Amino acid sequence: MAGSPVSTHSPSDGPPSEGPSADEQRKMEQAYAQMKRKMAMQSLGKRIKHKVMVLSGKGGVGKSTVSTGLALALAQQGHKVGILDIDITGPNVPKMMGLDGRRLHVEEGRIHPAQGHLGVKVISMAFLLDDDDTPVVWRGPIKLGAIQQFIGDVEWGDLDYLVIDFPPGTSDEPLTVAQSLPDIDGMVIVTTPQDVALLDSRKSIGFAESLKVPVLGVVENMSGYTLHGRAPAGTEVQIAGPGGRNHTVTADGEGDFHVTLDLFKQGGGASTAEEFGIPFLGALPFDPGFVRGGDDGVHRIVSDPEGAASVAFAKVVAAIQAQIGQSGSKGLEIV
Ligand SMILES: Nc1ncnc2c1ncn2[C@@H]1O[C@H](COP(=O)(O)OP(=O)(O)OP(=O)(O)O)[C@@H](O)[C@H]1O
Ligand SMILES: [Mg+2]
Q1: pLDDT of res. 333
Q2: CA pair distance 96, 222, nearest whole angstrom
Q3: Region 213-239: what's the mean pLDDT?
Q4: pTM for this model (two decimals)
Q5: 84 and 121 in contact (C-beta within 8 Å)?
């Protein structure tokens, strides 16, 4: 039986001269850990009611702002919510959730999420990095192993929603998540109104189809900036908008006026959605408060729960919930 992987040792041969080698022991432990992880991943299908992926084809369109905003808007409704920040090379969810510099707590081999605003549970690679400014270069298998660990080894508890924020593009990360996490409700595609971002979001829609994860719809971010001003009641005000477009508004009886300027071309998200026959989930305004919120760790939804951005997020959340309610289809099963 030379070369057979099966041991031919029998009790009548007497005690074996030696136990498993250190290498065999390590492999057995790895296989056991992998099995436990798979079981844990499977149980997430039941313990986390809804799982929503947030993706975009292009970088910097606001995925992390939208992911954190959705999580906070859902938490505001009283749901138990978690965010999984899968952006391993540039994780910035912790900063947006006021958890900068936090470390994860590990107990008996289980990773415990940090808790951000409104009790939202957060897991991010940023918690494991010593230095925010040093980019991490992960080789493929290590990166994928880290993602699986972030899904299978985390003690999320029972959640109503898990929002998963990704790096830009159609990379390995969404595929690993789609294969590891059972019963994904679907993905939200974030775009800005410019043509280039729209072209890339078209790619994301094709990618979603290849992952067999339903597309819940498209969100148009940085869609128009609303300018508020005051002038004597009834006065006609001329405003020179971007791209040479002039706007004329009249101050109301209280002397207030507001006008929404299209910083980019508006309505692209809606037309992409229509072209692909997928839902348009709503538009989020351009709001400098998002940048400040990203920097000082207090999201616009927390600092201004009644403001225009919070209202817009609430509408997007309602549209996503309507889609989740309608779509009976689920993501890939673990094999
Ligand atoms: N609606 C908005 N109004 C104003 N600024 C915004 C808006 N949405 C996002 N931003 C700002 O744009 C920048 C990029 O946003 P964010 O980090 O959310 O994008 P991203 O798609 O996650 O980027 P990456 O691809 O690098 O992960 C941030 O500085 C953020 O504050
Ligand atoms: Mg991001």
Answers
A1: 36
A2: 17
A3: 88
A4: 0.81
A5: no
Whether residues 84 and 130 share a domain: the answer is yes
In a domain, 333, yes or no: no
Measured from the alpha carbon of residue 62, the closest ligand is: 1
How many Å apart are CA 319 and CA 71, to the nearest integer?
14
Please tell me whether residues 141 and 55 are part of one structural domain. Answer: yes
Per-residue model confidence (pLDDT) at position 234: 93
Least confident interval from 55-59, 117-121, 202-206: 202-206
334 C-alpha to center of ligand 1: Å?
A: 32
Position 157 scores a pLDDT of 92
Question: Which CA distances in Å does 46 have to 41, 146, 181?
Answer: 10, 22, 11
Q: Whose CA is nearest to atom 29 of ligand 1?
A: 291
In a domain, 267, yes or no: yes
Q: Which of 261, 280, 307 is the last residue of a domain?
A: 261
Domain of residue 283: give its range.
Answer: 34-224+263-326
Whether 235 and 285 share a structural domain: no
Q: Which of 53, 55, 58, 65 for a ligand 1 pocket mutation test, highest count of atoms within 8 Å of Cβ?
A: 65
Residues 159 and 244 in one domain: no
State how many domains the chain has.
2
pLDDT at residue number 159: 95
Find the 328 Cα to ligand 2 centroid distance in Å. 29
Beta-strand ranges (E) seen in 46-158 are 48-55, 81-85, 105-107, 110-112, 114-115, 121-124
Residues with CB under 5 A from ligand 2 (ion): 63-64
Pocket residues: Cβ below 6 A from ligand 1:
56, 59-65, 87, 90, 92, 167-168, 221-222, 284, 286-288, 290-291, 294
